[in-house]
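Q&A log
Question type: sequence-to-structure
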Amino acid sequence: MPLRTPAQYIASLRDGRDVWFRGEQVPDVTVHPVIGKAIKHAAIDYEMAESDAFKEIAVVSENNQTYSRYYKIPTSTEDLLLRSRLIEAATAQGDTLVLLIKEIGTDALFALLAVTARMEDPKYHRRVRAFYEYCRDNDLALATAQTDVKGDRVKRPSEQADPDLYLRVVKRRNDGVVVRGAKIHTSVAPNANEVIVLPTRAMGEREADWSIAFALPVSTPGLKLLTSPFGDGDIRAGERPISVRHKMMETLTVFDDVFVPNDRIFLDGDTRQAGALALTFVEYHRFTAVSYKLPLVDAIVGAAATIADYNGILGATHVREKLTALIGYAETLRALTEKAAERCTKKADGQVAPDPLMVNMAKSHFAHGYHTAVQHLQELAGGILVTGPGDEDWASEATRPYLEKYLVGRQGVPAEKRMRMLNFIRDLSASDYGAYQEVLAIHAEGSLEAEKLQIFRSYTENGSAGRVMELVRRMARL
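Response status: OK
Response body:
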């Protein structure tokens, strides 16, 4: 089956899905002024598969099949590197600097394939494999809902005053189960075809009802998407050159007694494997995270150097120090990402995953350094990021001459050119979009503390801790 066109992808979203925006139900997400922008943004994944410039990296042809590389099950370092390069290229294409659509869901698919292949009951792996092939062959767009709303963070799922604060099974039938609960921070759900639901954490022995993984069409009855309006304000193209064209939707994903048929249930009641699935997903997803952040950090380095040049301070010692720090930040992230692929770990059936130690170090490096990187960029740009003129001032014959006279940079840099770069930096670092990126740096794809925990766990479990302890015991003649 051929890959879908962008038009076919967009048309597939007119399916009666229950989406809400600012308290009102959205009858057609494809024409909504905010969600529609996110859909056009996501369609870039489909456009790239048709583009001569990207087709080689975006499309796989093997065994008389042609399908999106996002669906290529990684079995080698090269597969992971090609996936990373595709994600990087997609994020940079059209200056998006945020995720598109196919990456997140395929991370979940790979985790499900790896974990269910080792489960005692083979029916779950057969179901995952059938679902994987269905999504691959139909070139579907997938969302992943993992993070529960959690309620009292100290208490376990079974200890909550309201048991629905972690998604759970509330009824079992011969043909499936009924689930109730909500997942938060679900990216791209309003413009996906299917949503994959995973456990958010390891479960205890009494938490079988919360140990559930499944997938459903977004249009399934009882599934409600309450979209976040963050960043939906009036946006002018000159002032906000990135966010005027690109958007990624986030939702509170509510399961209001939703029926899940047996063939879409991939884990049910296995408390031990619930934790394994949650951890395996983040191995893949944090690799996706650092891959799509590469163009973002490159943009910060490039914008910092460009505005320093336009302001005539590129040769100043303190400027070089900031630029050197930014270069080190960006290139260390790239090196750690590539090393995570190089040191890939084996899963079942020949599948591999990014090395958990390296990928968590990469994500931690990005997250801990992002705010400092933004600080360097804003220092080099100056306060005019938030005090500069608007698009209407440039359009006015009465005010434009003053802007052209007084807002110039060094000799040879006219005011309009300098202000275009400053407005790009404003959108990148001092707008709703910039704030969104700063919060994502801390919380998306796992918290700072989660990454620290995984770094320690991976270092201990892969034998590195024992190796270095043995080294010092030998050196100390113990």
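Response note: The CA atoms of residues 207 and 354 lie 29 Å apart.
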